[in-house]
């Protein structure tokens, strides 16, 4: 892993203006933040800088306002939740550049925290224009990026600023990069990956990259059907991308060449409707009724998955094995997640999970805290699994 500077390299910062890029793109229901995980993740960096006497100036985006102010994407809606998590006053400025930002910063005392309005209210943010970067840079002496989950974007606040100011990784960015290095960068072997979720089409690059890096690839969820069908299995009414049969075959061929085992379900739990509590039965994968769909992998398959987890030294997990959001089709995901958590607790496994639904699935199984690391990143985690360089990370390494 390329070197990057961390908060350990930041001394004598009392009175310095530190621009901290955080990810406050959190879910909001009825005007209230419904999941504060991302805020909790960046709290240690904010607290540490504040305790060292810095003027802590937070930069973040919220939603996709496309370069102009949109009232319900104002970070003023998130500020109270940030205050609550930090248990410290957080001032707010109505613009991230110009007079509102400058005036608010002029009023700051050492250790104070200020949240600037949504960076995406300006077109220069996503375009990463030199003019906008320069405007942002005026507000700080030092730049800290603690937003791994936005590091796949080469935006002004995630990438551009690091070229202008001394740049450091925050504690969460640091933890994330260290965990990912253990997951795929330089992992203990054998490495097993579990990839689930509905569609192969969104994960082709990811699968192609993984088969070259891991010893076994477990494929679950709706996407398993596409692989099964490519092998000639009749998947009935199951979700299946038949047009991707050749792609699936190509991935299996690459796996065989690289010596990566592909683990597909040998049985499935089928139903006639996609709904919680739907009548269901467990069938051999070669006996899926024509009018039924697979909604979860079956118990024999779970045993095989758990055996692979037991053998593994490293597990990388993205995507559920079945339709975990509707009971009882959550069984396989929950069983495998618990087994991975047990192996991790016993010190036999490094387990790294992330991406979209994965965190909800692990929370649903009650084991998110038992994994070695659970990333709150969606797109950034997927791009990392695809083996891509993330611009927000790359620039921190370059400036180290
Ligand atoms: C996320 O929520 O995935 C990150 O904050 C990035 O947001 P974006 O997908 O709108 O760039
Ligand atoms: Mg996203």
From TrEMBL:
Broad enzyme group: transferase
Keyword annotations from UniProtKB, A to Z: ATP-binding, Cytoplasm, Glycolysis, Kinase, Nucleotide-binding, Transferase
GO BP annotations, alphabetical order: gluconeogenesis; glycolytic process
InterPro entries in the cross-refs: Phosphoglycerate_kinase, Phosphoglycerate_kinase_CS, Phosphoglycerate_kinase_N, Phosphoglycerate_kinase_sf
Gene (UniProt): pgk
Catalytic activity, EC: 2.7.2.3
Record protein name field: Phosphoglycerate kinase
Native species: Ciceribacter ferrooxidans
Domain of life: Bacteria
Pfam families: PGK
């Amino acid at each position: 892993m390329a070197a990057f500077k961390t908060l350990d390299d930041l001394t004598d910062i009392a009175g310095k203006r530190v621009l901290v890029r955080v990810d406050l793109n959190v879910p909001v229901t009825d005007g209230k933040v419904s999941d504060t995980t991302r805020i909790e993740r960046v709290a240690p960096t904010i607290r540490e800088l504040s305790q060292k006497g810095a003027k802590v100036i937070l930069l973040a985006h919220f939603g996709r306002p496309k370069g102009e102010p949109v009232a319900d994407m104002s970070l003023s809606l998130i500020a109270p939740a940030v205050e609550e998590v930090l248990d410290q006053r957080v001032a707010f400025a109505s613009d991230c550049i110009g007079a509102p930002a400058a005036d608010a910063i002029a009023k700051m005392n050492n250790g104070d925290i200020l949240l600037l309005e949504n960076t995406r209210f300006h077109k220069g943010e996503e375009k990463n224009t030199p003019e906008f970067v320069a405007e942002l840079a005026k507000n700080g002496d030092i730049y800290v990026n603690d937003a791994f989950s936005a590091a796949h974007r080469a935006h002004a606040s995630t990438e551009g600023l690091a070229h202008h100011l001394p740049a450091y990784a925050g504690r969460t960015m640091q933890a994330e990069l260290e965990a990912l290095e253990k997951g795929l960068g330089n992992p203990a072997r054998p490495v097993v990956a579990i990839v689930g979720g509905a569609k192969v089409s969104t994960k082709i690059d990811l699968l192609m990259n993984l088969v070259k890096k891991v010893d076994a690839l477990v494929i679950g969820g709706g996407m398993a059907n596409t692989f099964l069908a490519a092998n000639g299995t009749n998947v009935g009414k199951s979700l299946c991308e038949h047009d991707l049969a050749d792609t699936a075959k190509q991935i299996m061929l690459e796996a065989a060449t690289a010596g990566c085992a592909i683990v597909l379900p040998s049985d499935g739990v089928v139903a006639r409707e996609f709904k919680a509590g739907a009548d269901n039965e467990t069938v051999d994968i070669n006996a899926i009724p024509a009018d039924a769909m697979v909604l979860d992998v079956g118990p024999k398959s779970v045993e095989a998955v758990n055996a692979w987890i037991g053998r593994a030294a490293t597990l990388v997990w993205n995507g559920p094995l079945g339709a975990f959001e509707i009971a009882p089709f959550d069984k396989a995901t929950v069983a495998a997640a618990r087994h991975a958590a047990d192996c991790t607790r016993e010190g036999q496994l490094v387990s790294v999970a992330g991406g979209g639904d994965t965190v909800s699935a692990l929370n649903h199984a009650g084991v998110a805290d038992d994994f070695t690391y659970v990333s709150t990143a969606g797109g950034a985690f997927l791009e990392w699994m695809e083996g891509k360089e993330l611009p927000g990370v790359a620039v921190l390494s370059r400036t180290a």
